[in-house]
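Weekly modeling sync, notes
Attendees: S.R. (lead), two postdocs, one rotation student

Agenda item 3: backlog of single-chain predictions. S.R. asked that every request posted to the team notebook include the full sequence so nobody has to chase files. The rotation student volunteered to paste the first one in as an example of the format we agreed on. Action items at the bottom.

Example entry:
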Amino acid sequence: GRGSNEDLRKNNYTCTPAGEEPAGICLACSYECHGTHKLFELYTKRNFRCDCGNSKFKNLQCKLLPEKGKVNSGNKYNDNFFGLYCTCKRPYPDPEDEIPDEMIQCIVCEDWFHGRHLGAVPPESGDFHEMICQACMKHCHFLWAYASQLAVPALTKVNSLEDKGIILNVEESEEQKKEIKKESGVEHQEKEEGKQIEQFNEPSTSSGSSCPEVKFTKSEDPVCKLKELQSKQFLKKDTATFWPSNWRSKLCTCEDCLKMYSELEVQFLTDECDTVLAYENKGTSDQETDRRDPLMDTLNSMNRVQQVELICEYNDLKTELTDYLRRFADEGTVVKREDIQHFFEEFQSRKRRRTNRMQYYCS
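Predicted structure, as returned to the notebook:
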């Protein structure tokens, strides 16, 4: 998921130019190992590991983690790693494009698309939270059944011939039933209808920053949500789709559907921790925890004399450390472990010299 192994990534165009295998590096390596190189910003990439210093780079060893595997076999690369985006394969920002347009990231392929190249006019940014591009909707064809209930706006019926959509209704003929099942990638057995696990209009119980584990309830005759939706009329179009914040929790998690997700390599769709919103909220929560001052917790357990002494020492440390780190920020260099160790050794040495100069007399 994004929270554990996905950070801001950059592609190194200097070390891996066009014609060679692309590579992605983490933010820390972009400063420490590739500070003067030409880089492309990639934002987040799912389950991606830093390539710095591996076999993709000739005569380069990572300064932060020298011992790395030769290849990150789990990494996936696309045209973004060469600074090209969308179906138009253009850079961003594009100096030749005078049309103001918002770039939106597809949550499946993680490519970025111009709003005007999605086959549909995007809703207002506040009306949806995630987008799936045209190509990924063709790949994940089962999602069209969910779009009739969950997409923004919901794709429920054709308003005119201009919609250029296809109405699918599996109740019309046995031939259509077989076609829908083939599209879903799962051959379901005919089962008794009437049971429902969850209504699609129920509110989500998950919060923005927490990611509940997906629990699967076993029963003798489980009801497949996808099969129920496919038994009704729904619209299929050649466009991207837009989805609200809690739509992933509505996806079916029966055994057949889980198998289908695995075959299509989209298991992450049922993981609410995979969303960029959850990832950003986790980062915000971590920052708030980091901003909590440990000094106040310690002061509550001390007497007045100890409190004054600790505050003085703490202020000295804070001032000197801030001045020390500011030099690294001004120079644009990464702070290493040995730099911090050197600072505290010097700080303790200065503290001892100050203490030794003090003399106390009794009258």
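Discussion: group reviewed the output briefly. Strands lie at 9-12, 24-26, 39-43, 103-105, 112-114, 130-132, 166-168, 234-236, 241-243.
Action items: rotation student to repeat for the remaining queue; S.R. to check formatting next week.
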